[in-house]
Amino acid sequence: MTETTAYGLSTRSVHAGERRDAEGAVHTPLYNHSTFAFDSTADLLDVVEGRKTGNLYTRYGLNPTIRATEAKLADLEGGEQALAFSSGMAAEAATFLAHCRTGGHIVCIGEVYGGTFELLGDNLPQVGITTTFLRADEVGRLPQVLTGRTRVVFFETPANPTLTVFDIAAISAQARAAGALTVVDNTFATPVNQNPLQHGADLVVHSATKYLGGHSDLTAGALIGPAELLAPVAMWRKNLGQVIAPETAFLLARSLRSLPVRVRAQNDAAAAVAAFLHTHPRVARSHYPGLATGEQKRIVDAQMRGGGGMLSAVLNADADQTAAVVDRLLLFAIAPSLGGVESLVTQPITTTHHGMDPAERAKRGIADSMIRLSVGLEDADDLIADLAQALDAD
Ligand SMILES: *Cc1c(COP(=O)(O)O)cnc(C)c1O
Q: Where do the coiled-coil regions begin and end (predicted)?
């Protein structure tokens, strides 16, 4: 099936991009092959010279399993094309290298994944690409920090771990007016809850390691957008050797077929957990897009279809008491990832924001007593009971 956009999201998750083979397999087989043969030199040249799309060499991404998974990813995000990578960081790095070049400037808004922070702050300056970081409360300064050299405006929404949402349409319009591309990390929301391209973003990046993979058993990344903007990124991916492995692409396609079912169940369970935490006496503050108020709620309503499976809470406790609450949880595993079927918990000061200066953390609203939860596919009642026993024990 190639033209599937008239169907609903669940139908597209199952059918988009799939190719039946001569054996009748019900979905695209795993082609582990590194290279593909042609009937004639003329046929080979058609692919090499770009007159036809076809299979050629797996590191180029020209492999049937990889291409089928990319077609599904593009369809789910409503983009023209997708590139699949060996990790989310690979997708980000190739995007920045392809679209910034030496002398280029990036604006990064709000909290971002620790690896992204390091890439922008430590690695890219070594090749002459610099970044201005704006805290969430400084987003109004975007027009002042955009310069003639700004090539990319980058942000996550909702952002980790404060679950702050950013207005994709407003930021994209400001970036476009300054001649910069808007790149949105849609890892937390997933295409089930939000399609940034519909709201004016130029490119969407994913750590497919999280919800898209969904089972904590693969590492992958994706970039989705117009073919014209992906072409230069594909060249970096090819020559840096960052393509997704065919086995991983096969597993990722397997996962994408159940993405809407999983994410909608996680939305519902997270909303129930957030409602419980919101009124618990041990909780000073809880953050969940589905419980946002004021301007944050306006943004959620304008661009999100569901609140997602991620939430955080600041406890009435010190750092050690918070660690004790975390350690008492039985169903939430202490682990620094998210988006899988098993619920996970982290204390951001011990993981994503471990290296950050405490004063800087405080400015960003990341308290010592903050916990971040990734709600899995367990029964919400069981998760709530587990949180209740952990919070009420002392
Ligand atoms: C995990 C994560 C990344 C990095 O992805 P990897 O697949 O680990 O390389 C980027 N952005 C967000 C929001 C993430 O959670």
A: none
Q: Where are the domains of the chain?
A: 9-256, 259-392
Contact partners, residue 299, CB within 8 Å, separation at least 6: 165, 166, 167, 292
Taking alpha carbons only, the member of 36, 308, 328 closest to residue 165 is 308
- CATH tag, 9-256: 3.40.640.10
Q: From the CA of 59, how far away is ligand 1's center (Å)?
A: 22
Of ligand 1's listed atoms, the one at least distance from the Cα of 89 is 9
Residue identifier of the C-alpha nearest atom 11 of ligand 1: 113
Cβ 246 vs Cβ 31: under 8 Å: yes
Q: Establish how many alpha carbons lie within 13 A of residue 122's alpha carbon, considering only the half-sphere containing its beta carbon.
A: 6
Instruction: Tell me the mean pLDDT per 10 residues along the chain, length 394.
Output: 71 94 92 96 93 94 97 98 98 98 96 94 97 96 97 97 97 98 98 98 98 98 98 98 98 98 98 97 96 97 98 96 97 96 94 83 90 98 98 89
Nearest CA to ligand 1 atom 5: 88
Ligand 1 centre to CA of 42 (Å) is 42
CATH superfamily assigned to domain 259-392: Aspartate Aminotransferase, domain 1 (3.90.1150.10)
Is the CB–ligand 1 distance for residue 190 below 6 Å?
Answer: no
Give CA–CA dist 17/3, Å, rounded. 9
Ligand 1 centre and the CA of 47: distance in Å?
33
| pLDDT score, position 286 | 95
Quote the DSSP letter at residue 311.
E
Specify the ligand 1 atom closest to the Cα of 112. 13
- Residues recognised as catalytic: 59, 113, 185, 210
Q: How far is CA 104 from the centre of its chain?
A: 24
**Class of residue 254 by CB neighbours under 10 A (exposed 0-12, middle 13-18, buried 19+):** middle
Structure tokens at 67: 């291409």
Which among 87, 160, 166, 207 is the best mutation to test ligand 1's pocket, defined by most ligand atoms within 8 Å of the CB?
207
The predicted pLDDT at position 2 comes to: 46
**According to the model, what pLDDT value does residue 5 have?**
60
What interhelical angle do 259-279 and 380-392 show, nearest 10?
30
